[in-house]
Amino acid sequence: MKDIIVIASGKGGTGKSTVAVGLGTALAHDGCRVLLIDCDSGMRGLDIMLGVTQNLVFDIADAVSGSCTVENTVYPCPDKKGLFLMPAPLNAYDEVAPQILGQLVEGVADIFDYVIIDSPAGVGSGFEAAIYPAKRALVVVNTEPTSIRGGQTVAGKLRGCGIEDIRLVINRFNKQTFRKMGLYRDLDEIIDITALRLIGIIPEDYSLAAAIQSGKSGSMTAPAMKALENISQRIRGRLVPLMIK
Ligand SMILES: Nc1ncnc2c1ncn2[C@@H]1O[C@H](COP(=O)(O)OP(=O)(O)OP(=O)(O)O)[C@@H](O)[C@H]1O
Ligand SMILES: [Mg+2]
Protein backbone atom coordinates (compact mmCIF):
# COMPACT_ATOMS: atom_id res chain seq x y z
CA MET A 1 0.00 0.00 0.00
CA LYS A 2 1.26 3.49 -0.79
CA ASP A 3 2.73 5.39 2.10
CA ILE A 4 2.63 9.20 1.99
CA ILE A 5 5.28 10.87 4.15
CA VAL A 6 5.86 14.59 4.61
CA ILE A 7 9.29 15.93 5.58
CA ALA A 8 8.87 19.00 7.78
CA SER A 9 10.90 21.19 10.12
CA GLY A 10 9.47 24.64 10.69
CA LYS A 11 12.88 26.28 10.69
CA GLY A 12 14.57 26.61 7.30
CA GLY A 13 17.77 24.86 6.33
CA THR A 14 17.64 21.91 8.74
CA GLY A 15 18.06 19.47 5.85
CA LYS A 16 14.49 18.59 4.78
CA SER A 17 15.31 18.43 1.07
CA THR A 18 18.55 16.55 1.70
CA VAL A 19 16.65 14.01 3.82
CA ALA A 20 13.84 13.76 1.22
CA VAL A 21 16.31 13.04 -1.59
CA GLY A 22 18.50 10.71 0.49
CA LEU A 23 15.52 8.78 1.80
CA GLY A 24 13.92 8.53 -1.64
CA THR A 25 17.21 7.32 -3.08
CA ALA A 26 17.61 4.70 -0.35
CA LEU A 27 14.04 3.40 -0.76
CA ALA A 28 14.39 3.25 -4.56
CA HIS A 29 17.76 1.48 -4.17
CA ASP A 30 15.91 -1.08 -2.06
CA GLY A 31 13.50 -1.82 -4.93
CA CYS A 32 10.62 0.55 -4.09
CA ARG A 33 8.89 2.91 -6.51
CA VAL A 34 9.16 6.35 -4.94
CA LEU A 35 7.63 9.70 -5.91
CA LEU A 36 9.25 12.82 -4.46
CA ILE A 37 6.99 15.86 -4.50
CA ASP A 38 8.64 19.27 -4.23
CA CYS A 39 6.24 21.58 -2.39
CA ASP A 40 8.65 24.50 -2.11
CA SER A 41 6.83 26.73 -4.62
CA GLY A 42 9.04 29.55 -5.86
CA MET A 43 12.15 27.95 -4.36
CA ARG A 44 12.08 24.72 -6.37
CA GLY A 45 15.27 22.73 -5.74
CA LEU A 46 14.71 18.97 -5.82
CA ASP A 47 15.13 18.91 -9.62
CA ILE A 48 18.73 20.10 -9.17
CA MET A 49 19.33 17.59 -6.38
CA LEU A 50 17.96 14.79 -8.56
CA GLY A 51 19.67 15.86 -11.79
CA VAL A 52 16.45 16.27 -13.81
CA THR A 53 16.40 20.04 -14.41
CA GLN A 54 17.11 19.72 -18.16
CA ASN A 55 14.12 17.42 -18.67
CA LEU A 56 11.47 19.52 -16.94
CA VAL A 57 8.57 20.90 -18.97
CA PHE A 58 5.57 20.76 -16.63
CA ASP A 59 5.17 21.23 -12.88
CA ILE A 60 2.40 20.91 -10.32
CA ALA A 61 0.88 24.28 -11.33
CA ASP A 62 0.49 23.11 -14.95
CA ALA A 63 -1.50 20.08 -13.83
CA VAL A 64 -3.72 22.37 -11.73
CA SER A 65 -4.31 24.81 -14.60
CA GLY A 66 -5.15 21.95 -16.96
CA SER A 67 -2.15 22.58 -19.26
CA CYS A 68 -1.12 18.95 -18.79
CA THR A 69 -2.17 15.77 -17.02
CA VAL A 70 -0.87 14.98 -13.54
CA GLU A 71 1.13 12.08 -15.06
CA ASN A 72 2.93 14.63 -17.29
CA THR A 73 4.39 16.23 -14.16
CA VAL A 74 6.06 13.01 -12.98
CA TYR A 75 9.69 12.72 -14.15
CA PRO A 76 11.91 9.65 -13.78
CA CYS A 77 15.30 10.46 -12.24
CA PRO A 78 18.23 9.45 -14.43
CA ASP A 79 20.47 6.73 -12.96
CA LYS A 80 18.03 6.19 -10.08
CA LYS A 81 15.71 3.37 -11.03
CA GLY A 82 12.39 3.63 -9.23
CA LEU A 83 12.77 7.29 -8.21
CA PHE A 84 10.47 9.96 -9.69
CA LEU A 85 9.99 13.70 -9.16
CA MET A 86 6.94 15.96 -9.29
CA PRO A 87 8.49 19.46 -9.42
CA ALA A 88 7.24 22.51 -7.55
CA PRO A 89 5.92 25.56 -9.42
CA LEU A 90 8.70 28.01 -10.31
CA ASN A 91 6.62 30.94 -9.09
CA ALA A 92 5.51 31.30 -5.49
CA TYR A 93 2.14 32.71 -6.59
CA ASP A 94 1.40 29.38 -8.33
CA GLU A 95 1.34 27.64 -4.94
CA VAL A 96 -1.27 24.89 -4.85
CA ALA A 97 -4.09 24.77 -2.28
CA PRO A 98 -4.09 21.84 0.19
CA GLN A 99 -7.21 20.06 -1.15
CA ILE A 100 -6.01 20.43 -4.76
CA LEU A 101 -2.65 18.93 -3.89
CA GLY A 102 -4.49 16.16 -2.07
CA GLN A 103 -6.44 15.35 -5.24
CA LEU A 104 -3.29 15.41 -7.41
CA VAL A 105 -1.45 13.08 -5.06
CA GLU A 106 -4.43 10.73 -4.91
CA GLY A 107 -4.41 10.63 -8.71
CA VAL A 108 -0.90 9.22 -8.92
CA ALA A 109 -0.07 7.70 -5.53
CA ASP A 110 -1.37 4.22 -6.32
CA ILE A 111 1.46 3.44 -8.73
CA PHE A 112 4.10 4.16 -6.05
CA ASP A 113 5.14 2.38 -2.88
CA TYR A 114 6.13 5.65 -1.22
CA VAL A 115 5.27 9.28 -1.83
CA ILE A 116 7.65 11.69 -0.07
CA ILE A 117 6.59 15.32 0.17
CA ASP A 118 9.30 17.91 0.79
CA SER A 119 7.71 20.85 2.62
CA PRO A 120 8.93 24.45 2.58
CA ALA A 121 10.32 26.20 5.66
CA GLY A 122 7.82 27.80 8.01
CA VAL A 123 4.24 26.90 8.82
CA GLY A 124 2.50 29.01 6.18
CA SER A 125 0.21 28.02 3.34
CA GLY A 126 2.92 26.02 1.51
CA PHE A 127 3.47 23.92 4.61
CA GLU A 128 -0.28 23.42 5.04
CA ALA A 129 -0.55 22.16 1.46
CA ALA A 130 2.45 19.85 1.88
CA ILE A 131 1.07 18.13 4.97
CA TYR A 132 -2.50 17.77 3.69
CA PRO A 133 -2.05 14.51 1.71
CA ALA A 134 0.37 12.96 4.25
CA LYS A 135 -0.35 9.95 6.45
CA ARG A 136 2.88 10.22 8.44
CA ALA A 137 5.68 12.72 8.96
CA LEU A 138 9.38 13.06 9.62
CA VAL A 139 10.39 16.18 11.54
CA VAL A 140 13.98 17.18 10.82
CA VAL A 141 15.91 19.12 13.47
CA ASN A 142 19.52 20.09 14.11
CA THR A 143 21.05 20.24 17.58
CA GLU A 144 20.20 23.92 18.15
CA PRO A 145 17.37 25.38 20.26
CA THR A 146 15.78 27.38 17.41
CA SER A 147 15.60 24.33 15.21
CA ILE A 148 14.16 22.24 18.05
CA ARG A 149 11.51 24.90 18.75
CA GLY A 150 10.60 24.73 15.02
CA GLY A 151 10.31 20.95 15.33
CA GLN A 152 7.96 21.27 18.31
CA THR A 153 5.82 23.81 16.44
CA VAL A 154 5.42 21.70 13.29
CA ALA A 155 4.75 18.58 15.34
CA GLY A 156 1.85 20.45 16.99
CA LYS A 157 0.53 21.54 13.58
CA LEU A 158 0.84 17.99 12.21
CA ARG A 159 -1.08 16.58 15.16
CA GLY A 160 -3.70 19.29 14.68
CA CYS A 161 -4.18 17.98 11.13
CA GLY A 162 -4.67 14.43 12.38
CA ILE A 163 -1.18 13.10 11.62
CA GLU A 164 -0.23 10.94 14.61
CA ASP A 165 2.72 9.02 13.19
CA ILE A 166 5.44 11.66 13.58
CA ARG A 167 9.10 10.64 13.88
CA LEU A 168 12.14 12.72 14.70
CA VAL A 169 15.26 12.97 12.52
CA ILE A 170 18.31 14.65 14.05
CA ASN A 171 20.37 15.87 11.10
CA ARG A 172 23.90 17.28 10.79
CA PHE A 173 25.02 15.71 14.03
CA ASN A 174 28.66 16.45 14.81
CA LYS A 175 29.83 15.06 18.15
CA GLN A 176 32.68 17.55 18.59
CA THR A 177 30.55 20.61 17.78
CA PHE A 178 27.73 19.27 19.94
CA ARG A 179 30.08 18.91 22.94
CA LYS A 180 31.79 22.27 22.33
CA MET A 181 28.48 24.13 22.15
CA GLY A 182 27.33 22.45 25.36
CA LEU A 183 23.70 23.41 24.82
CA TYR A 184 22.33 20.00 25.72
CA ARG A 185 23.47 17.26 28.09
CA ASP A 186 23.05 14.61 25.40
CA LEU A 187 20.82 13.67 22.46
CA ASP A 188 18.26 12.16 24.82
CA GLU A 189 17.59 15.66 26.12
CA ILE A 190 16.69 16.81 22.59
CA ILE A 191 14.48 13.78 22.06
CA ASP A 192 12.74 14.46 25.40
CA ILE A 193 12.13 18.13 24.53
CA THR A 194 10.51 17.29 21.22
CA ALA A 195 8.53 14.41 22.76
CA LEU A 196 8.86 12.64 19.40
CA ARG A 197 10.07 9.12 18.70
CA LEU A 198 13.50 9.14 17.12
CA ILE A 199 13.83 7.45 13.72
CA GLY A 200 17.44 8.31 13.03
CA ILE A 201 20.50 10.50 13.54
CA ILE A 202 22.29 11.68 10.40
CA PRO A 203 25.90 12.80 10.85
CA GLU A 204 27.18 16.05 9.42
CA ASP A 205 28.73 14.83 6.21
CA TYR A 206 29.86 17.14 3.43
CA SER A 207 30.41 14.27 1.01
CA LEU A 208 26.66 13.55 1.19
CA ALA A 209 25.82 17.26 0.90
CA ALA A 210 28.09 17.53 -2.17
CA ALA A 211 26.69 14.37 -3.78
CA ILE A 212 23.11 15.54 -3.32
CA GLN A 213 23.74 19.16 -4.33
CA SER A 214 25.41 17.97 -7.55
CA GLY A 215 22.53 15.65 -8.41
CA LYS A 216 24.59 12.54 -7.67
CA SER A 217 22.78 11.18 -4.64
CA GLY A 218 23.40 7.69 -5.98
CA SER A 219 26.77 7.86 -4.22
CA MET A 220 25.86 5.38 -1.48
CA THR A 221 29.26 5.40 0.22
CA ALA A 222 28.90 8.66 2.20
CA PRO A 223 28.58 7.89 5.96
CA ALA A 224 25.39 9.95 6.18
CA MET A 225 23.90 7.85 3.37
CA LYS A 226 24.23 4.80 5.63
CA ALA A 227 22.13 6.64 8.25
CA LEU A 228 19.53 7.46 5.59
CA GLU A 229 19.46 3.84 4.44
CA ASN A 230 18.83 2.81 8.05
CA ILE A 231 15.98 5.34 8.31
CA SER A 232 14.52 3.92 5.10
CA GLN A 233 14.62 0.43 6.62
CA ARG A 234 12.88 1.66 9.79
CA ILE A 235 10.24 3.33 7.61
CA ARG A 236 9.70 -0.08 6.05
CA GLY A 237 9.11 -1.46 9.53
CA ARG A 238 12.44 -3.24 9.96
CA LEU A 239 14.43 -3.16 13.19
CA VAL A 240 17.80 -1.50 12.63
CA PRO A 241 20.01 -0.38 15.55
CA LEU A 242 21.00 3.27 15.83
CA MET A 243 24.49 4.16 14.59
CA ILE A 244 25.13 6.91 17.16
CA LYS A 245 23.96 6.87 20.76
N1 LIG B 1 23.92 15.78 7.03
C1 LIG B 1 24.41 16.88 6.45
N2 LIG B 1 25.74 17.15 6.47
C2 LIG B 1 26.24 18.27 5.89
N3 LIG B 1 25.50 19.19 5.27
C3 LIG B 1 24.16 18.99 5.23
C4 LIG B 1 23.55 17.83 5.80
N4 LIG B 1 22.22 17.93 5.60
C5 LIG B 1 22.01 19.08 4.92
N5 LIG B 1 23.16 19.72 4.70
C6 LIG B 1 23.35 21.02 4.03
O1 LIG B 1 22.55 21.96 4.75
C7 LIG B 1 22.00 22.92 3.84
C8 LIG B 1 20.49 22.93 3.96
O2 LIG B 1 20.01 21.67 3.53
P1 LIG B 1 18.60 21.53 2.79
O3 LIG B 1 18.50 22.41 1.63
O4 LIG B 1 18.37 20.08 2.61
O5 LIG B 1 17.67 22.08 3.97
P2 LIG B 1 16.12 22.44 3.91
O6 LIG B 1 15.58 22.18 5.27
O7 LIG B 1 15.47 21.73 2.78
O8 LIG B 1 16.16 24.00 3.60
P3 LIG B 1 14.88 24.94 3.23
O9 LIG B 1 14.16 25.16 4.53
O10 LIG B 1 15.51 26.17 2.70
O11 LIG B 1 14.06 24.18 2.24
C9 LIG B 1 22.50 22.53 2.46
O12 LIG B 1 23.67 23.27 2.18
C10 LIG B 1 22.83 21.05 2.61
O13 LIG B 1 23.83 20.62 1.70
MG1 LIG C 1 14.30 22.45 1.17
Task: Pick out its properties.
single chain, alpha/beta, Rossmann fold, 8 strands, binds adenosine-5'-triphosphate, binds magnesium ion
* Chain oligomer state: single chain
Shape: globular
Q: Approximately what portion of the residues adopt beta-strand conformation?
A: 15-25%
Largest sheet: 8 strands, mixed
Could you name the CATH homologous superfamily? Answer: P-loop containing nucleotide triphosphate hydrolases
Strand order of the largest sheet: 3-4-2-5-1-6-7-8
CATH architect. name: 3-Layer(aba) Sandwich
Estimate the mean pLDDT confidence. 94
Structural class: alpha/beta
Q: What portion of residues is helical?
A: 25-40%
Main CATH class: Alpha Beta
Enumerate the spans where pLDDT stays under 50 for 5 or more consecutive residues: none
Looking at the structure, the CATH topology is Rossmann fold
Number of strands: 8
The CA-CA distance between the termini, in Å, is 32 Å
* Count of domain modules: 1
Order of helices and strands: EHEHHEEHEHEHEHHEHH
Using the CA coordinates, give the radius of gyration.
17 Å
Structure description:
The chain has helices at 16-29, 46-49, 60-65, 98-109, 125-131, 145-160, 175-181, 187-194, 206-213, 223-235; strands at 3-8, 34-38, 75-76, 83-86, 114-118, 136-141, 165-173, 197-203. It is globular, with a radius of gyration of 17 Å. Strand 3 (75-76) and strand 4 form a beta hairpin. Helix 1 crosses helix 10 (223-235) and helix 4 runs parallel beside helix 5. The protein contains 10 helices and 8 strands. The protein has an 8-stranded mixed β-sheet, with helices on both faces. It has 245 residues and is an alpha/beta fold. It has a single domain (9-228), classed as P-loop containing nucleotide triphosphate hydrolases (Rossmann fold, 3-Layer(aba) Sandwich), CATH 3.40.50.300. The mean pLDDT is 94. The chain binds adenosine-5'-triphosphate (ATP) and magnesium ion (MG). Residues 9, 12-18, 40, 120-121, 171-172, 202, 204-206, 208-209, 213, 224 line the site of adenosine-5'-triphosphate.
